[in-house]
Specification:
Strand content: 35-45%
Number of strands: 6
Order of helices and strands: EEEEEE
Strand order of the largest sheet: 3-4-5-6
Largest sheet: 4 strands, antiparallel
Number of helices: 0
Shape: flat
Structural class: mainly beta
């Protein structure tokens, strides 16, 4: 997994466990969104994986055939 190390912020330096970042894992073929040092969501070839809640203001519906993302 690609690690970004320490980030400089206006308030100082954040450790890797405190950072909000996006990690790209070429070996697993996934993108991981890290919020405050914890994985919050992953995008893999089969779709979006979210271990927690999803909040939205509209409607989610399966509107037809699968869409080819290529």
């Amino acid at each position: 997994m690609m690690m970004l190390g320490l980030l400089l912020t206006p308030l100082g330096v954040l450790s890797a466990s405190e950072q909000t970042r996006i990690e790209i894992d070429q070996v697993k073929g996934e993108v991981v969104f890290i919020i405050k040092g914890q994985p919050a969501a992953r995008i893999v070839s089969s779709g979006l994986i979210v271990p927690g809640d999803i909040r939205y203001g509209g409607m989610i519906a399966d509107g037809g055939p699968a869409v080819d993302a290529r």
